Amino acid sequence: MNIPLVNLARQYQSIQKEIDAAIKGVCTKSDFILGSAVNTFETSFARYIDTTHCVGLASGTDAIKLMLLAAGIKPGDEIITQANTFISTILPVIELGAKPVLVDCNPETGAIDVALVEAAITKKTRALLPVHLYGRPAPMNELKNLQINKSTNLQILEDAAQAHGSSINGNKCGSFGDMAAFSFYPGKNLGAYGDGGAVTTKSARYAKTLTILRNIGQRKKYDHVRLGFNSRLDTIQAAVLSVKLNHLDRWNKKRAAVAQTFIKELADIGDLTLPSNSTPGVETNWHLFVVRTKKRDALMKYLEKNGIHCGIHYPIPLHTTPALKFLGYKQGTFPVSEKRAQTMISLPIYAELKENEIDYITRTIRKFFST
């Protein structure tokens, strides 16, 4: 048996007629740049997130960059985020000349540690950048309380790149902060057929700024009112995303069912630590199913040998990444993030996983720990 970490071909086959028709519709109309499908998707996604505005962009990384710019982030400003995230969370911070201030994560959930965030806030702090890591919502209510208590000038900017459909007490990720950045990288729960991203917000002012920034600084054609970027969501990608958005909740429910089977069948096996799933009101979209074990490398090799392809998200914490050495952090600064990086492994999880594949994955893991 061969089980990939992600199977986009199987997903495409399940919606092929809809996708092909959507792409053909754009090609027939030939409005490839900021065409009607972009506005249609933006309206639908804003409604889905229960926010007022959605601005489609070229990628999730661009979404973070333009979100920071719209928020008025300037060189020297401090942005607090977590050490155990993907590098794209902080690359835009650095590009704008601001300073990423890293903190460790909660040892149980992997989410940003609110107490450490509070301790890291200084007079230079302009924004908190929590990550809904693996699709599990960050502690947004606690962070919003911190925002209220500390300063009205402290903004919350969500990295919701992995959180399509995740929620807290029924409120979707992407609706809590001043703005939120989404990625539509193909492997996401809501993925395009190429790069894509978006920012959601309830602020008309932010939305207007974002639409100017994404389109070479234009308010209208040839009316360049500020320095901007070429960061538009392609019309074809928007059409694909509109089709997929109609299936997102169903796909997320299937992911949840797979996750519950994993949790049931892999309980109390060796030193295997399963994802925490007990916080009341918190609903993850199960973008990733990440387990931890001191035998990570041996387990991963064994699964690979048996045709089960896994991943590591992420093997090197930001503060020990060679390219970020200039930030000045040392090994040992964030022990929780470092320990998780050494022990975590992401199992295949997607709506199209078959029952016999799920059974094969759990049986193979149990066999590994029994030998």
From TrEMBL:
Identify the keywords attached in UniProt to this record, alphabetized.
Pyridoxal phosphate
Residues with the N6-(pyridoxal phosphate)lysine modification: 188
Q: Which GO terms describe its biological process?
A: polysaccharide biosynthetic process
Active site as annotated? 188 (proton acceptor)
Q: Which Pfam families match?
A: DegT_DnrJ_EryC1
Q: Which Gene3D superfamilies match?
A: Aspartate Aminotransferase, domain 1 (3.90.1150.10), Type I PLP-dependent aspartate aminotransferase-like (Major domain) (3.40.640.10)
Q: Does the keyword Ligase apply?
A: no
Residue spans making up a coiled coil are none
| Superkingdom of the organism of origin | Bacteria
Q: Which GO terms describe its molecular function?
A: pyridoxal phosphate binding; transaminase activity
Q: What family is it from?
A: Belongs to the DegT/DnrJ/EryC1 family.
Name of the protein in question: Erythromycin biosynthesis sensory transduction protein eryC1
Source species: Candidatus Gottesmanbacteria bacterium RIFCSPLOWO2_01_FULL_46_9
